[in-house]
Input
Amino acid sequence: MEKLKVGLIGCGFWGKNHARVYNELETAELIAVCDIDEEKAKNIAKKYGCDWYKDVDEFLRRSEVEAISICTPTITHFQVSSKCIKAGKHLLVEKPMGIDSFEAKNLIELAKKHKVRIMPGHIERFNPAVQKLKELIKEGKLGKIILMLARRVTRWPERIGDIGVVKDSAIHDIDTMRYLLSDEVKEVYAIIGSLKHKFEDYAEILLRFKNNETGFIDANWLTPRKTRTLIVIGNEATVTLDYLTQEIIIENSEKTIKPSIKWEEPLYNELKHFVDGIIKNEQFLVTEEDGLKSLEVCDSIILSGKEKRIVYL
Output
């Protein structure tokens, strides 16, 4: 079996999960990891029997590495990803692709120039419940979609706080709504603020799509209990989805149905898709343009919140 030789940059909270999954995949071989924190890199390398580096430039001299996961802080995504692209490495860049849409655009142009592929890490597309909901919408089981209501709330996450709740959390629901609707946001209005953190830690977001569907996102880092839900309302049925349990409930005028969905780890599905896409040269489910579009919406949300006005995309 052909194996893709992969590397990892960023061995922190989320990077160590990438390392674990790559080690589990039959189609991947984890060659080396890199982190400015020597101990973090050493620990993962020891656990999975690969090499470790502290310096990115030295790491990139490993010519056999074909693809890399970027799990560094968001403020470093553009700089680190640019180096990898120039070294000819395919990338999975954790969301968001850059600190803003300007960085994302430049990264896409650089990747095209060097003939390198980028897949943004929008993990919820690989949640089995989201895939089932996409299927229901495509089959017309919900009728015309009117409204999507997302709630993504929790206490302050165990991550470096270099961005706020919009680009760290709400971006998941922005991408999921775009994916489910196969549509783009045309205007946003948002109320954002900060009670305990440097960046915004709560956001109430209203989205209007080109086909006139409405999306509402409630995101914060202030709520004691972790909640990840999505309600999709159509004129024929309503679906309630729980991202964590991967359960969905379908309600129409006649009955309530709870389909049986096999639980699968979204990160495993995502990284397998990335690896297989590189090996087989197939299009990714999440494209560079998807990463850019979601960031453009995020930038507009933050602008709307700061200037207290509707922002048109």
Remarks:
- DSSP finds nine helices and 15 strands in the chain.
- Residues 127-264+295-312 form a domain with the Dihydrodipicolinate Reductase; domain 2 fold (CATH 3.30.360.10).
- The longest helix spans residues 288-307.
- The chain has two domains: 4-123+268-286, 127-264+295-312.
